[in-house]
Design goal:
single chain, 398 residues, alpha+beta, Rossmann fold, 2 domains, six-stranded antiparallel sheet, four-stranded parallel sheet, 8 helices, 18 strands, 32% helix, globular
Length: 398
Amino acid sequence: MLHKFHHNLKLHKEDLDLWFKEKYKIFKLPIYGSVDVRYSGWKVSVVDANYFPAGFNNLSEDHDIELSEKFKKYIYTNHGLNIKNIHIYPENHTRNPGYVENIVRLKKIISNADFIVTVGSPELNRFELLEGISEDLVLDSVSLENDLIQINGQSPDLILLNNDLTGGLISGLNGRVEPSKEMGWYKRKKSDHYECLENLVKEVSEILDLDPWFLLPMWFVSEDKCLDLEACKKKLARDIDLMISRIKDKYKEYNIKSEPKIFVKNNSGTYGLGITTLSSGDEINSLSNRIVKRLTYGKGGHSSQDFLIQEGIPTSLIQGDLVMEPVGYTIAGEKSFWFFRTNHKKNNLENLNSPSSNFMQFDQIKMNLKKSELLDWFNLVSKLSYLAMGMELQRRDY
């Protein structure tokens, strides 16, 4: 389906480039970020966007030089030439070698950009190092002085936050902090992102002369712990059925042979926690206590108040028994660097971000995606998502 519109991307490339150029003047792009993308053949969409990416170690090392260059340019452009010492403030994942490896890789990228890099937090002061995969991560002792982070008696020029603040604000995050602590999950909602993204997708769809539904999942928000209230659950079931009906109308309009699915997600959080799939509104009334607890559970044990109800997009990227989805990472927001999340225990409509997931590089994929039009679509929706992140931040600032 989407291949019929690929020529529109080429035909309107100059208009599209100009549109992005003008938007970049309005919105400050994130220092870094990541997106999960789903491609079904008839639809391509970002299904999750993260301000605090935790998988740089999954990228090919071939990208490191360019990532370092982009990091240096971003810092000097946004913070001036006097930034020398950068402190990475991580999560407390002391038993997660994959996350530790993410910080090892991030530290390398920043060090190669000619900055002095330290890593640590007051919570991690009891450790001298953390076990990674390729190497261990040496931690720096962190103290607080007048609510400012200090390392060896000196405050860093900039704090790079790699902690999503699910548990709330952390002491010491003052001075120059990137990304803004305003974007932590204690305040940010996934629906904030889709509200911003929806506006951008509509504008781009007009340029490309295509239905914006091809580039964005349908969605709405269920608020105020609705799963705890019987009357609210009944209304939610009706709303879900209405969304399914709208998706079926789209399938009929474009002659798509598939059955709609709905994702119910924790509206605040990451790491694939708090997600389930539904085929009808009635299923919301018959969820087991185990599934309800899983839905309301967030990282660190924080319970969910609101839920993002989102159109499920099946992935058409399948290699043998591996179901795949592209994951884009950025530094500075104008370009994505890609790897693939794979899962041999999930089907093409399920959430792939689970303990059984693995990661693959482009050269491990049998499909020739580098020369494929698919990459053009992946890049388009990821760039739109990074812009939406900038729009989110601007709204927070005002």
